Amino acid sequence: MDGIVTAAMLVIGDEILSGRTKDRNIGHLADVMTAIGIDLKEVRVVADDEPAIVDALNAVRAQYTYVFTTGGIGPTHDDITADAVSVAFGVPCEYDARAMTLLADSYSRRGIEFTETRKRMARMPRGATHIDNPVSVAPGFHIGNVYVMAGVPEIFQAMLDNVLPTLKTGTKLLSAAVHSPFGEGVIGAPLAKIQKEFPATIIGSYPKFRDGTFWTELVVRARDPQMLDSARKAVEAMVEELKAPKEDNQLA
To answer: Which residues form the MoaB/Mog domain (predicted)?
Structure first.
């Protein structure tokens, strides 16, 4: 469909899957993508396992306009994202001359030895271009439709800020929320009918619980403002017309 740009995200790291590290990047990327008119369609969390990363990356890069990855580009043995991306694209993973210079200069200014371990942060697929890192110097990289960035939230956000001006954006997905005092078991059938009447919209229901009572937030999304307004009014009318028995005011 014209005007639609899509994206996927790969969150890479055993520490995420084990629960040791709590991801803070998914929500940030989702907020930013929505704001600029890119639909974040899928997020996968992948272990530090090269075949798993390669398989996941090849699947999503073939399906979406852009892919953003976080994690696995540090200096240690388990930082294997650069290797996996190289395998996915069928190119060597090698030390990038510009990245080596940036890192060498940074460590020299601080009087820190530029060890072989630290040099690993200069590795990237042949043909990749840099994503500048204004926080800690070590760059991310971009190859094809894939943008590889750090997992540390502050660094990821800074890298993403540098990527955003280069991205093609689409028509923004607008949204409107409607409060329903009824549970999903009450609104399910009439809400499905409204969705069929407005196929160009996306209507979601999100159960809430407060003060011992279930209620539902109904969110209407559309790219066309008039379509959004019409569907929102239909949902509001549905809520007003519903006369659910008190005992039906439940989650399901």
So the answer is: 8-170
Are β-strands 93-95 and 123-125 bridged in parallel, bridged antiparallel, or unpaired?
antiparallel
Domain of residue 33 covers 6-166
Q: How many domains does the chain have?
A: 2
What is the rounded (10 degree) CA torsion for 29, 117, 138, 81? -30
Domain final residue pick, 110, 144, 166: 166
pTM for this prediction = 0.86
In a domain, 210, yes or no: yes
What is the CB neighbour count within 10 angstroms for residue 68? 28
DSSP 8-state class, residue 110: T
Burial class (CB in 10 A: 0-12, 13-18, 19+), 204: middle
Q: State pLDDT tens for residues 25-58.
A: 999 999 999 999 999 999 999 999 999 999 999 9
CB 45 within 8 A of CB 17: yes
Among candidate residues 150, 166, 182, the one where a domain is terminated: 166
Task: Report the sign of the C-alpha dihedral through residues 160, 38, 169, 58, in that order.
Answer: positive
Residue 1 domain-assigned?
no
Question: Left if phi > 0, otherwise alpha if psi is -120 to 50, otherwise beta: which for 19?
Answer: left
- Is residue 145 domain-shared with residue 31, that is, in the same domain? yes
